[in-house]
Specification:
Strands 1, 4, 5, 6, 7, 9, 10 and 13 form an eight-stranded antiparallel beta sheet that branches. The protein has 717 residues and is an alpha+beta fold. Strand 5 and strand 6 form a beta hairpin. Helix content is 21%, strand content 19%. It has 20 helices and 26 strands. It has three domains: 131 residues, Chondroitinase Ac, Chain A, domain 3; 254 residues, no CATH class; 200 residues, no CATH class.
């Protein structure tokens, strides 16, 4: 016998219908979940398992003498959106037995699937089938269909099963599959990718990830397989056009394409993709240009139009902003506009790579000279490498327009063609500098969780208008500027990058150049919250509607819970319910500051540092004793809240006749109308608290009040 051990790591329920607009329940799409249950086979070898709670809809049956007395393990896990030509309509259910490795048993499996995803994919129930997943290969089983959204088949166990929909190969209508890839300062250094300048300094060969570069600057492109929505079986990159005299050629790094434009002008790169179900051909255009200079103003040419002189033109971008508004004035007062002052006395060229514009000594062949000195960047203006700060071009000092947007002057393209269009709002260009180290402003420990928010749930969040507004940078910018940006009017979709939350021009006048700050009005009771710098967080980390909604599960409820609203309060006056933490602000706890402020958006891993964060300025009394890996600085309040939450779950399941550990559903049907109402009110409060995902920490006082009311209501009915 070979004993198979499983480690259960269950964080929270992931529903395939999440963020797809189906049903009344919505679980967080960014929670990875594995659920494992066991069933013991009787002495007669008969298997008869019917799932409930987290496993509702799944069933396993059959008889096999060899299974007598054995334990069958059933694991539920998330499925890939598309695999081997099949769209996944259900989670993956892996059935295994603690037995000999070669033991195989024929059992009947029934799997539930999402009718919403099926409808979105244009399929019908007859098109679905139980499939076996083996690595990246799928085997379709002969299946029968029930009266609801379920499919049954006989399969060999052990195996991993899911409900699949076979897709015919077609030309994909999606765009934005080719994406510009960035290589941050830190990543380039870690890969030992350096360029050496005349002062003998080795500078990381970072990649800005933009479509306007200087000659000699590296460009990297990658395939966005989430947008493609299929498994790539073959691909071909082609440099279909380039300026006369260019010797640029594409090199491959896996499926990624890299090349170095060597002549000023226009370059077009094409990609041909073949997937299991679809094909796609797409092209992107980029320009290699020199940095601009206006002799009349001793500044970049951008200033001529973007100083407000032509603000009355009426030209707006998709967010409704005046394109020719006065950007230069707030920029001049911003951290970017004044960045050169911090290194004005420096003789270290590594400082100018980020504190000046266009510093790239592109010695690509290692002969000690810059083969692309005509780019007219900061390094090309240096006349004395021992006094670099004073001998470079004044108009290129600090982080000017072209440092982020790319150079924009060149005779190879006319003005309108080469001018920026749909400037990307990814973190690409930001990380070429803000991923340096522990020095303030050089963000150390950057996490790409928000940057990849658009890829969650197999990319479905980027296709669904309701999810789009919080899971994509374009959608979030639309929320900030009160414009309805949808998947239909966005060509290249990105995640929540740096410039979504921070205004690189400094126009907002907020702390840390945040785009917005101040009060926020929650839909529930029109509650006005003094959110301060956390206003950006409140925009998405809320339930996106008026609460309570008995019979449904709030998608996210952090803003409501911490503000002390949104729970089902049974008509009671609960007094002051807002948490004292609401005045602290999200980033106070959720940004690691040890060794420099970061954007990991996690609390520090160091226990002492966590406690210091709590006891400095807030909980100023002596910290309590350390116990079981944690401190409870609220003298048992949080522990009490967690105990109450567990008590409510047990009470709901007991009243509903469910297993004690069953997941709490959105709604129940009791033996009487009064009991049904009591169950559903209690279930709502439980899920409202659960989907805050702080375990009660955000507002333990409000949590305990809600739970006590629900427990009393259940007891009375």
């Amino acid at each position: 016998m070979r004993l198979i051990k499983f480690l259960l790591v269950a964080v929270s329920l992931f529903a395939l219908t999440a963020c797809l607009g189906g049903g009344s329940t919505k679980s967080s799409v960014d929670d990875d979940t594995r659920i494992i249950v066991t069933t013991t086979v009787g002495s007669d070898g008969k298997v008869a398992y019917t799932g409930s709670g987290e496993m509702a809809g799944f069933a396993l049956s059959g008889t096999a003498a060899g299974l007598a007395g054995k334990t069958v393990y059933i694991e539920k896990s998330d499925a890939e959106y598309s695999v081997d030509g099949y769209v996944s309509l259900s989670p993956v259910y892996t059935v295994s037995v603690a037995d000999k490795a070669d033991a195989v048993y024929a059992l009947t499996v029934t799997l539930p699937y999402s009718s919403t995803i099926l409808a979105n994919e244009g399929g019908s129930a007859a098109d679905t089938a139980v499939c076996i997943l083996s690595g990246s290969s799928v085997t379709k089983l002969t299946s029968s269909h029930g009266s609801g959204s379920d499919v049954t088949a006989v399969g060999s166990v052990p195996a991993s099963f899911f409900v699949g929909l076979k897709k015919e190969q077609s030309e994909s209508s999606l765009t934005g599959i080719i994406k510009f890839e960035a290589v941050s300062y830190r990543a380039a250094a870690a890969a030992s990718s350096f360029l050496v300048d005349p002062s003998a300094k080795s500078l990381p060969d970072s990649v800005r990830g933009i479509d306007r570069v200087q000659p000699g600057e590296k460009v990297r492109l990658f395939i966005d397989t989430v947008t493609f929505g299929d498994t790539v079986t073959s691909f071909n990159w082609t440099l279909t056009s380039k300026p006369a005299g260019s010797l640029a050629a594409i090199t491959l790094n896996g499926t990624n394409a890299t090349f170095v434009p060597d002549v000023a002008g226009k370059y077009t790169v094409s990609l041909s993709l073949v997937g299991v179900n679809s094909t796609k051909t797409e092209s992107v255009t980029l320009y290699a240009l020199n940095y601009s200079y206006n002799t009349a103003t001793n500044s970049a040419s951008c200033v001529v139009c973007h100083d407000g002189t032509f603000a009355g033109s009426g030209i707006t971008d998709k967010y409704g902003r005046n394109v020719l508004r006065a950007i230069t004035t707030p920029w001049a007062a911003s951290a970017h506009g004044n960045s050169f002052a911090a290194v004005a006395a420096s003789t270290d060229s590594r400082c100018f790579q980020c504190h000046a514009t266009g510093f790239l000594f592109a010695d690509r062949n290692g002969n000690g000279s810059d083969e692309f000195s005509d780019a007219k960047g900061y390094d090309d203006k240096i006349t004395n490498w021992s006094t670099m700060a004073s001998t470079g071009g004044d108009h290129l000092k600090s982080v000017s327009c072209e440092a982020c947007h790319g150079p924009n002057d060149g005779s190879s393209a006319n003005f309108f063609e080469k001018h920026y269009k749909n400037t990307a709002i990814t973190s690409n260009v930001c990380l070429s500098c803000h991923d340096y180290g522990t020095v303030s402003g050089h963000v150390f420990g950057y996490s790409d969780g928000h940057d990849n928010a658009h890829k969650l749930s197999g990319g479905n969040v980027a296709k669904n208008a309701a999810c789009f507004k919080c899971h994509t940078g374009e959608g979030m910018m639309g929320r900030i500027f009160s414009k309805n940006i949808t998947p239909a009017n966005t060509d290249r979709i990105s995640g929540i990058g740096c410039s979504v939350c921070h205004d690189p021009h400094g126009e907002s006048g907020q702390n840390s150049q945040l785009r917005i700050s101040g009060s926020y009005t929650l839909p529930t009771k029109s509650t006005v919250v003094a959110a301060g710098d956390s206003k950006l967080c409140y925009y998405c980390h809320n339930a996106d509607g008026e609460l309570p909604t008995v019979g449904a599960i709030p998608h996210n409820s952090q803003a409501e819970l911490i503000s002390g609203v949104g729970g089902y309060e049974y008509g009671q006056n609960l007094g002051t319910t807002a948490s004292s933490h609401s005045a602290t602000g999200c980033s106070t706890c959720h940004m690691k500051t040890q060794g420099g402020t970061t954007h990991s958006l996690d609390m520090t891993d160091d226990t002492a540092a966590r406690i210091a964060g709590c006891t400095t300025g807030c909980h100023t009394t002596n910290a309590p004793a350390y116990s079981n890996g944690t401190y409870d600085v609220t003298a048992g309040t949080v522990a009490a809240a967690k105990a109450k939450i567990a008590e409510l779950k047990a009470a709901i399941n007991a009243k509903a006749g469910e297993a004690a550990d069953a997941a709490i559903k959105a709604s129940y049907t009791g033996t009487t109308t009064a009991q049904t109402n009591a169950l559903n009110r209690a279930a709502y409060n439980y899920n409202f608290i659960l989907n805050d995902r702080s375990g009660g920490f955000h507002n333990p006082g409000y949590v305990v009040k809600l739970v006590n009311l629900s427990l009393a209501d259940l007891a009375a009915n």
